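Lab notebook, design round three. We kept the backbone fixed and only want residue identities now. Task for the bench partner: fill in a sequence for the structure below.
Input structure tokens:
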């Protein structure tokens, strides 16, 4: 075959292949564009649903999502009504099954407490409560200040960190009555703790002043924090510890006795008897 003709045929086949590939790509793109996208209609929040609230029908709406529905999405509003919100749900977002407590468990904080944990409420003032910046979900350390038993009187008030990296469940105000019976508002912060930590908080809240210290939620390291006293705050050396005075044993009372010689045949014995004034 003529070399020139062969070259022309090869070039023609190459151009034809490229044109066919381009036409195939354009044709497939138009077919994909003409197909309708898959959508899903899921239950969404019609307004902000706070933590612990029981979901009502007026709190819910529906929305259409392009593509597949998110994992745990609810498709029937009846499956969400009457369940407590375990986290804050914002308006316009899908309501997920993991965000709601089980049916019949009610609202409030109880459904949000994991197994083996406890919710312990402590009262703090506005300044101690980090000026109102303690909100649910944050992490705090718990400090106590007071005069522990057995401390030196010259040390003054001692502050100690008793709990670290504790999650805040809720924060707000509570109305209590003072010694005269007048109502007063106090800051109340509910912390998520273990049963052992709940006992520590209960002891501290009885006679000590409690302070909360905010921490970065990504910082989960438990630090070794020594206790500090008012004396060490001003750079004074610690008060010398006095050695306990030895307790002298009380002298044993002297008991006067008198002896009686007993002769029984060939045997002789001696018996001693206490006396209050007789012979010694």
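Proposed sequence:
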């Amino acid at each position: 075959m003529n070399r020139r003709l062969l070259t022309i045929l090869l070039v023609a086949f190459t151009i034809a292949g490229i044109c066919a590939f381009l036409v195939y790509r354009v044709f497939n793109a138009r077919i994909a564009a003409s197909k309708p996208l898959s959508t899903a209609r899921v239950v969404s929040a019609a307004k902000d649903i706070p933590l612990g609230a029981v979901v009502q029908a007026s709190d819910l709406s529906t929305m259409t999502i392009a593509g597949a529905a998110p994992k745990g999405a609810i498709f029937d509003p009846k499956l969400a009504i009457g369940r407590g919100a375990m986290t804050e749900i914002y308006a316009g977002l899908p309501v997920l099954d993991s965000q709601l407590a089980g049916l019949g468990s009610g609202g409030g904080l109880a459904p949000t407490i994991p197994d083996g944990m406890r919710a312990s409420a402590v009262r703090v003032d506005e300044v101690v409560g980090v000026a109102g910046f303690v909100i649910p979900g944050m992490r705090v350390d718990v400090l106590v200040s007071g005069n522990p038993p057995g401390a030196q009187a010259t040390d003054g008030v001692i502050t100690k960190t008793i709990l670290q990296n504790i999650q805040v469940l809720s924060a707000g105000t509570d109305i209590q009555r003072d010694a005269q019976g007048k109502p007063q508002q106090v800051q109340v912060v509910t912390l998520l703790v273990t049963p052992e930590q709940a006992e520590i908080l209960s002891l501290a809240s009885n006679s000590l002043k409690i302070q909360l210290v905010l921490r970065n939620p990504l910082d989960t390291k438990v630090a070794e924090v020594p206790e500090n006293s008012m004396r060490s705050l001003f750079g004074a050396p610690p008060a010398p510890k006095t050695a306990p005075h030895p307790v002298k044993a009380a002298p044993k009372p002297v008991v006067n006795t008198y002896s009686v010689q007993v002769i029984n045949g060939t045997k002789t014995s001696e018996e001693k008897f206490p006396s209050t004034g007789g012979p010694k």
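Keep this in mind before ordering anything: The beta strands are 39-45, 60-66, 118-124, 139-146, 158-177, 183-193, 209-215, 228-229, 256-264, 267-275.
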